[in-house]
Amino acid sequence: MSxxxxxxxxxxxxxxxxxxxxxxxxxxxxxxxVVDKPLLQYAVEEALAAGIERMVFVTARGKGAMExxxxxxxxxxxxxxxxxxxxxxxxxxxARLLPGSIxxxxxxxxxxxxxxVWCARHVIGNDAFAVLLPDELLWSPANPALAEMHTAYSRVxxxxxxxxxxxxxxxxxxxxxxxxxxxxxxxxVKSLVEKPKPGTAxxxxxxxxxxxxxxxxxxxxxxxxxxxxxxxxxxDAMAQLIGVQPFHALTFTGERFDCGDKAGHITxxxxxxxxxxxxxxxxxxxxxxxxxx
Length: 293
Ligand code: G1P
What we know:
Layout: E1 8-12, E2 33-34, E3 37-38, H1 39-49, E4 54-59, H2 65-69, H3 74-82, H4 86-94, E5 102-106, H5 113-119, H6 121-124, E6 129-132, E7 136-139, H7 145-156, E8 159-165, E9 175-183, E10 186-194, E11 205-213, H8 217-222, H9 234-239, E12 247-251, E13 255-258, H10 262-275, H11 280-289
Parallel strand pairs: 1-4, 1-6, 4-5, 8-12
Antiparallel strand pairs: 2-3, 6-11, 7-13, 8-11, 9-10, 10-12
Helix pairs in contact: 3-4, 10-11
């Protein structure tokens, strides 16, 4: 089983963002900012920190802003340059990627996360690849999540997913792991279930949107079997690899914000704002006036 470095990452970003309407009526959910950076940029930076070279955007009609965000904005750059706004110029240059590093494919119909990953099959080819769900903001600036996974992957190989314990009454929202042997932060995965009905989850260990997968998962996705919510679920295809290939979970040790959820998104904004030297003090001051905690 290959453990060679993972160089391709898939970003399933074709969703309609219905949980964030009306904000997402004309802009993609992945472009919603946390403080001043879109969610997608956090995920792309996390991928870069893990040595990813090819970013595969699985996108949909009307979501061109996401590719534009990582392009050169020549007019804006020239105007900032002319005005001597070097700090702002640096910010837009930071969001640029090397030419040719974004490959974009369309998911024509919203048939599920598994279907989105399958849509990237021609770019994935025969190598292990990563998947990042940008609405899961995994905040760990010193040890970015995918880089940590990459290190663990070089040890265990096979398939590796990032997990975290969630409250019992949230398990129905996530893919949930049946844990096997535990070795530090690495847990053997015995089985996986997507969005178990309340009260039926095998554990509280939830899949939190980061995956390193072997290419064999694509053939399983190609079968197009419908699972939870009538969708083609990545979790169901991954579950079929358990016992056939090594399958482990790495517990994430940073701070996780489920920004697909309004409360999670607001919390992420507050937490990251408080860490910022420029705006943190005034946000903290305002929070103090609300007599919190
Ligand atoms: C997806 C996955 C699920 C995972 C979750 C993480 O669900 O299918 O296994 O736990 O992301 O956010 P979604 O939130 O797209 O319904």
